[in-house]
Amino acid sequence: MPPPRSPAAPPLALPGARAITPAQAATTLGASAAAGLALVAAPEWWVAFGVLGVAALTAFGLLRPAMFLGVFLLVRPLLDEFSQTTVGVESANLAGALGALLAAITVVVLVARRRPVVPPATGPLMGITFVSLLAAAQAASSVPSIGLRPASELIRLIALVTVFLLAANTTPRESRARALFVIVGVSAIVPALWGIWELGFGAPVKEGTEIGRISGTFTGPVPFGAFLSFTALVMIFGPVEKVPSWIRWPALVAMLIALTATYSRVGWVLFVLGLVILGWRDKKALVTGFVMVLVVVGAAIPSVRERALPSEEGTSTAAGYESYDWRLGNWEGLLGKWRERPLLGNGLESTTFVNPRAPLEGVGRPGGGFESHNLLVRILVEGGLVLLVAYLIFLVSIMRRLRRLSRERWELRDGARLLYVIWGLSFFTGLTTDDPFQLTALMVTLLGLTGAVEGAHRGRARVAAEDMVEEVGRTRRPVRPAGPFPVGAG
Q1: Is 212 helix (H, G, I), strand (E, B) or coil?
Q2: How far is residue 270's CA from residue 222's CA, in Å, rounded to a whole number?
Q3: Cystine design at 91: which of 155, 198, 219, 330 (Cβ 3.0–4.6 Å)?
Q4: Residues near 260 by beta carbon (within 8 Å), at least 6 away in sequence
Q5: How far apart are the C-alpha atoms of 298 and 291, rounded to whole Å?
Q6: What percentage of the chain reaches a pLDDT higher than 90?
């Protein structure tokens, strides 16, 4: 008889923990040793803490991707103010680093899933990113002084795609999607209070105007106002029933006070039109009350009235680049640049480089021109007709999908309707007042919630299909023969 084989070495096991294999233990020890050597060799203390922070966030994101996404959406509105310091490249800052980490975690999550959720708008959104890549190459040839700004914009677009996909693949239930709506709603509380504090100590007054406009934790009043308008609509019409009234309504008041003090036309248009469209059917009394308050505020505060409805005589608040006439002239000059390169435009992030109009401090400086303040104009100038087609395909895709989800009878119908209206108003304001698609915090939250609704709907459909299969299996019964012999026997 051959001698009995010795049993294979059992996997390592710690008390109260799952068993691990020797390969896993070796990998863990090697990674720990490498991290220790990196910390010892770090030239500054903040480098060591940065290495530890990145490692901790990576582990957190890989182990709990849904929770990581929620934390990311919660803290993202606080990062703009702290992302002014960069390392050579615009996106080489705190927000850009978190965006890159989010992209890496999303790739791991998608690879680990057998059947990842890919919403219908994913292809068009990636199409925008691909055409932007071509536009970045165009910018390198047509505007040599543009530097790495196209690369920064590509990183931002990739981060938007990844947050959309990560949300769709980490929210298989309606409860998780509702939690993300709550997180987005309360994420504006700290920026709003920051803005009110800023207003109390005197908001900064821009040169050429007499209005002090607050920015909160954002880089300017326009992105701050757009984000506040979105989160205020989420708190009013979104599926946030779990937020107590004693938190919800004071937070909403703080958001609206800060939104008024931003003097942002984008924010005002998004909120007022969204309020009327979403609430006129079921919440007429609430809409009427808000409209009356807006009328009183406009009548009592001349600067608000002049900002919303600039007079023909012109005032210091409506003069210069703040006026509608100036915007029309700015768009006309930029469209002239687009006609020179109609197919692929002048390149990604080239607007301020090719704009013939520039402020005094930007005259003669590369990239010193004015922004387009218009979605359509920016698309044509930077990506031409090809990028315009990509955006139109994305618009049709996202609006058709959300329209369908807002009409279907399911738990997140109101959330889908809210997103449907906000996306439509974003395109509308992009053509009339400013370009909300350049506002990263707004787009991150909007795409994150859209992906969450998609993921919850897919999960609901999957559960319904599994329940149907189980029900069919229970109802099937074996057919008993009619007699002991087959028909025709004997």
Answers
A1: strand
A2: 12
A3: 155
A4: 297, 301, 304
A5: 10
A6: 37
Cβ atoms of 42 and 53 closer than 8 Å? no
Give which of 238, 229, 224, 231 is closest to 279, Cα–Cα: 238
Alpha carbon of residue 189 to chain centroid: 18
Query: Could you tell me the pTM of the whole model?
Result: 0.82
Q: What is the pLDDT of residues 50-89, one digit of tens each?
A: 666 677 777 888 888 889 899 999 988 888 766 555 555 5
Q: What angle do CA 231, 235, 236 make, to 5 degrees?
A: 120
At 301 the three-state DSSP class reads coil
CA distance 272 to 252: 14
- Written as one letter, the residue type at 418 is L
Taking the C-alpha atoms of residue 308 and residue 336, their distance in angstroms, rounded to an integer, is: 29
Q: Give the integer Cα–Cα distance in Å for 405 and 415.
A: 9
CA angle 107, 101, 418 (to 5 degrees): 80
What's the pLDDT at 13? 45
Two structure tokens written together for 359:
């402020």
Q: What are phi and psi of 183, to 5 degrees?
A: -60, -45
CA atoms in the 13 A half-sphere facing the CB of 53 = 9
